[in-house]
Fold this sequence. Notes:
heterodimer, A: mainly alpha, MetI-like fold, 11 helices, 0% strand, globular, B: alpha+beta, Rossmann fold, CATH 2.40.50.140, 2 domains, 8 helices, 23% helix
Amino acid sequence: MPEFRNVGEVRGLRSAAFGFMVFLYLPIAILILYSFNSGSLVMVWSGFGLNWYAKAFANADIQRAALNSLIVATVATALATVIATLAALVMTRGGPFRGRGASLAMISLPLMVPEIVTAVAMLIVFAGTGLSLGLGNVIIAHVTFCIPFAFMPIRARLEGMDTTLEQASADLYGSDWATFRYVTLPILMPGILAGAMLSFVISLDDFIITMMVAGAGSTTLPVYIYSMIRQGVTPEVNAVSSLLLLASVLLVTLYWLVTRNRDAATA
Amino acid sequence: MERKTAIDVAGVVKRFGHGPAGVVALKDVSLTIRDNEFFTLLGPSGCGKTTLLRILAGFEAVSDGAVSLYGENIAGLPANRRSVNTVFQHYALFPHMTVAENVAYGPQRLRRPAKEIAETVARMLQLVKMEKFAERRPAQLSGGQQQRVALARALAPHPKVLLLDEPLSALDLKLRQAMRAELKQLQRATGITFVFVTHDQEEALSMSDRIAVMSEGEVQQIGTPAEIYEYPANRFVASFIGDANFITAEIDGIIDGVASCRSARGLSFTLAAAPGGKPGDRVTLFLRPEKVRMEAPGDAGLAGRIQTMEYLGQSIFYQVDIGEDAPLIVAGRNRDDGGTPYKTGDRVSLIIGADALRMLAA
């Protein structure tokens, strides 16, 4: 019997894989399907219609929540990506310094901390300090959990980068700034883009922390969807959820296209 | 006429790390590289040649000693303010830039006018025969082509000194040999002082005006290729460059600078005495394999018996037992009548000219 086999020949693998895919994606497929239901009952199909999308688009609360989500995700991503880039540069190019290992652990730790803990901690901080910046509070909270997501791909890219390129730049009369601007940053760009996309999607989809820290008027889309469900589920929830999903998928696809072209050019 | 000094290295020491765990990479290295010279740092890996090159480039600071470039002390000057450019071992071309952008990088950082930069790039690419590839990216080039771009990029700012860190080591044999002649020609054409680092003795001998042979952080000898090959300063240099036979002997007597020596097994040799040698000294005699003539057994010469033969095409290496501890290596040339008239086990006579044998200090 051969040591290695084509996985396609493993008995039962196809049906197991198929079952797994159904388990993963069937609920989402149904959610999307019923967003096109013309009737008002969520689980009773009454015909194809875009009326729930029209209603969702016309809903001023949804518009406001979507706008909030976009503002929070954009600002939080920008801040988190800049901070993560600086942190990654210090970690990989800053030479050895005291507490380097501890710093690295602390940057990555928020990935392991249960989200509800971060959420409660943030709530206490804002309540205790009386800090009330409206959407600003949400942005601060989002920056804290977006940093490690932005940090990981940026650091990976920097560690994979040949440091003799930076030496070559210095050798060719490049100042520290010129070396960063013309050599390090362009080569690092795919990593920064990956970090930013990841951070944007994480921020856009966040529910627990936002739920805790968002005051009146700072509701984001996920929080608004949750409040809609409490008032009774209509296909309008499906429509809004589908749109949120579409935004995430578009972002990931865009990232994939951008990095693929870049890598084809530089590899 | 004495030429100007390009680089003067005086008493340079380089230590990595501190205390007992520290490593001394360079122990008191001093050497002078002349203007417009093709100078090679030659030695086995770990001898300190790359460390010295990195000090010249400004990537490493000296622990002690002074380095000057055309009379200016550069020990404290960062890499980006030295008129010295480097061709890196693995080229280090910027992957996100085209060939032309790579070559333009140095002149751009020096804020040369755009028109001048365009002219320089065109001239440099022509110099290394890469004009057709200006818009390619490094990843689309072969190793040899990347090598040429790296040369063009380093020459474009017209440095006072070009440093080359084993630039040929990543190329295959044929290309390496072709590039030797081109590098030498390029050095002549540009008039720039080249400092070339290699562990390949053939590369060093074929291209250099002068060679510094290094070992364990020290310069063993500096000289022209012929001086180093013919008159090695010590046993390390003799064995590192080319093939060599060593015979341990004792000086019996010296008359008019000609020493008569006797080996441990009683063979006697006469040759020029090394300076300071006196009767009773134990010395090492050194002999290149190609300087021994092999003949059919006769009265003249040293009697021996062929132990083994190694056929290398162009030449044949014989190990000949002459009664010493180690057999004598003799190189015979391939001849027009096809190979060699000798076979293993043959008795032969070895003719060694008085000038072929040299005495090494210790």
